[in-house]
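Technical note accompanying the year-one report. For the benefit of new consortium partners, we illustrate the data format agreed upon in the data management plan: each record pairs a sequence with a structure-token string. No post-processing was applied to the example shown here.
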Amino acid sequence: MTRVDRDVAVTGLGLVTPAGSEEHTFWEGLCAGVSMARGCEELTGLPVDFGCPVVGIDLDEAVGGRTVWRMARFVKMALVAARRAVADAGLSPERWDGDRVGVVLGVGVGGVSVLVDNVRRLDGGGAGAVSPLLVPMMMPNAAAGEVAIALRAHGPSLAPATACASGATALALARDLLLDGRCDVVVAGGAEAVLTPLVVSAFAGMGALSLRTGDPSGASRPFAADRDGFVIGEGAAVLVLERTADALARGGRPRALLAGAGSGTDAHHPTAPDPDGGGARKAVEAALGEAGWAAHEVDHINAHGTSTVLNDAMETAVISGLFPHRPSVTAPKGVLGHTLAAAGAIEAAATVLTLERGLVPPIANLDSLPDGFALDCVVKEPRIQRVERALSHSFGFGGHNVVLAFRRVDADGRPPADPGVLAVA
């Protein structure tokens, strides 16, 4: 197998995010570096009454059809993003071999709002008031199932749940399905919609959320000296992955290469990261190894950057320890909030756009780094930078760490030639 045969290409992107649900609005929002956080009516009266909701899109209209009533909000987001990604890739479910198409969509929680609504029904009206659609609407794998139905995808359908690393885990699994020869196309990403009183109250109770209720737009502050917690967001992102040779053969347009993926587990604590960053470091090293890169070749890092005290300190230690040449660093959660299971996929899409456009979005609300944070953070305005190799970090509760390695492609969609690397039959 030649080197190009083992390359996996991103050929399509689809997004539903707080910064916009079209690629250009999403990118403009990231590059503006202004937080999307705002007060949320449904959170009124709670200790934390703000978040980063998806607005400006009628999900029911975007999904369409007669089955939209059976879908929870996170499923609708996933389906809209998946359809857009497939269209962006120039593919059509009417023309592909569905047996060779896989779907991998990470979801952390599922339809929690549907569950809460039905608990109220049970309390108020007894068992007969509970919807028979409760289970299929709330189960986390509903997104993968509905997307597979809509896209006529009969290959493997998976729903990894690795908390805030779920979207990145989905992309790593998708890459494996392609390289193992089990699929020719994989539609992969993540979705989450838990901006609800129950979930917000739970995160606030554990001390994970920013308490800047008087300044929602200034609350998410990745790597800032005065950060005090994350802001919950919602959204979805789906990427279409194919083997590069297959994409080129059909006249497709590779947008970037997913050159490697790595994972490592903290095995430390249910919610707190390992302060030494052992699991995160293993994930970075594994991604570099699979991509065949030396650490000094990495130009850019799309950081997990939650804006929590512990996570940002751990991630800083990992980055500064492994990359003393100080690649540029951005953290989209300053703009988007933390979209939980969707974050890894949304940030993977942002990394692809950085590679394509030669522009690194700034980190919102970052005025000053703490003493000892040796990072080259992009702040205030986008930075023009030709990025060849980039990493996207995703770290989740439970100690799940996933890192994706992306490579720029040339204008003709072909992978850049590496001097000294020969194709081996």
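Partners are asked to follow this layout when depositing records. The two ends are 5 Å apart (CA to CA).
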